[in-house]
C-alpha cells in the first residue's frame, strides 16, 4: 500500500470547496467533485492522472500514461495507490448519493438513490472524507509488515 499517495488524497481535500464535493462523480459543474477528482486536479501532488474535457464536454479522469480515460477501478489506479480491488472499492465507491450538496448543476451524476457500496464512509464533505481516509490509513499501517 502506498501510504504517501494515500496521504496526498488528504492534502488534495484540504483545499476542496465543500459545496462542490460529491462522491458520485469525478467532476461536477466544471470542478473536481469526488476524492479522486480532487487528487487528479492536483498535478503538484501526482503525475499519473488529470481531469480533462471528455468527448461530451464533461470532465473525465484521464490516465496520463496512456492518454485515455481512466476510472477508480482500473488496474492503473489500484497500482498507483497499491490497493487491492476491495480496498479500492472501499475508498472510492459511493456509499450513498450525497446530493452534490444541492448545488444542482446538470453535470452531476448523482441519482439520488442510495447505493449498497461503501466509499469514504458515505462522506458528504471534504472533512468527512479526510477523517475516513485517515482512519483507513491508520488501520492498514497497523497491520503493515
* Fraction in helix: 25-40%
Number of helices: 5
Radius of gyration computed on alpha carbons: 14 Å
Order of helices and strands: HEEHEEEHHH
- Supply the helix-strand structural class: alpha+beta
- Strand fraction equals 5-15%
How many domains, in number, for the residues? Answer: 1
**Ends: how far apart?**
11 Å
| Strand order, largest beta sheet | 3-4-5
Q: State the shape.
A: globular
Largest sheet: 3 strands, antiparallel
Mean pLDDT, nearest integer? 79
What's the count of strands? Answer: 5
Poorly predicted tracts of residues? 95-118
Description of the molecule:
The protein has 145 residues and is an alpha+beta fold. The protein has one domain. The protein is built from five helices and five strands, in the order H-E-E-H-E-E-E-H-H-H. Strand 3 and strand 4 form a beta hairpin. About 17% of the residues have low confidence.
Would you spell out the secondary-structure blueprint of this structure?
Elements: H1 3-14, E1 27-28, E2 31-32, H2 35-41, E3 49-53, E4 59-63, E5 68-69, H3 75-81, H4 85-92, H5 126-143
Antiparallel strand pairs: 1-2, 3-4, 4-5
Helix pairs in contact: 1-2, 1-5
List keywords for this structure.
globular; alpha+beta; 3-stranded antiparallel beta sheet; 145 residues
Brief synopsis:
This protein has helices at 3-14, 35-41, 75-81, 85-92, 126-143; strands at residues 27-28, 31-32, 49-53, 59-63, 68-69. It is an alpha+beta fold and 145 residues long.
